Amino acid sequence: MGLPKMKIRLGLSLAILLVSGGLAGAAEPVFPKGTLVGVVPPDGMVESATFSGFEDRSKAASLLIIEMPPQAYPQIEAGFTDAALATKGITVESRGPLVADPKSLPESSALRDAQTLLVIGKQSAGPVVAKKWILLAGSAKGTALITVQIPEANAGDLSDEAVRKSLMTLAFRAPPSTQEQLAGLPFKLGDLAGFRVVKVIGNTAAVLTEGDKDVVESASQPIFVVGVSPGTPREDDRGQFALRSLSSVPAVRDMHIDRA
User: Does residue 11 sit within a domain?
Assistant: First the structure.
């Protein structure tokens, strides 16, 4: 009688170990710095230092993430026709939802309540042809545009199954606090002299203002922008360098220069 009980206990113990091991091994989505959209990248890809996403330089493979507000989905989808993509050198091979039945996904999945459109094709840029997967996903939390590509010569190193598996892990996270965003900047802000931070741009710049409005128009409030740019300008180009940097800030438009 003791032997069957022992077998049952061993079986239960093994099952528990397998379940717990599977849970422990489940990878969590990775959110590139400054983004609210993340995925578990395909094997071999690491976070890129030059764009928002992941890359495997040894295979020239990349996964680029662009995030937009929820209302952007229908506008982007309308421009995803085969003809429109053809103007960018993309030949569409297939299109359709990433998931046929989103409601069958776990409640924890960001795709459960999302609209999705997955376009698969090839893009020609001169003599180079790349295999491409473009996912557009939109929900109340935001809109994500994820582009995965690899040179056709290396296409065997990145399967359709591996890409779909990665895209299925798409997740949105809550916006970080201003302090969390400031902590990611390569510099520290000390005495703000009455100014307050209204926007942090990526990991390079902060926009401050003095006044009640968060959106400043028509110079109704003073704006102070502090940031860093790669490279060191020549002494005789410092003025133009500063103007180019300031003009690239999204919060600054219709600018008139009094002096520089």
Answer: no
Residues 105 and 221 placed together within one structural domain of the fold: no
Q: Which residues pair with 30 in a beta bridge?
A: 39
Q: Is 216 exposed, middle or buried (0-12, 13-18, 19+ CB in 10 A)?
A: middle
What burial letters (b/e) apply to 116-141, b meaning 16+ CB within 10 Å? Answer: bbbbbbbbeeeeebbbbbbbbbbbeb
* pTM for this prediction: 0.67
Kindly state whether residues 131 and 209 are assigned to the same domain.
no
Cβ(52)–Cβ(32) under 8 Å? yes
- Please give the Cα distance from 45 to 22 (Å, whole number): 22
Q: Do 80 and 209 lie in a common domain?
A: no
Give 158-205 pLDDT, tens digit per residue. 999 999 999 999 999 988 788 877 887 888 888 888 888 887 776 778
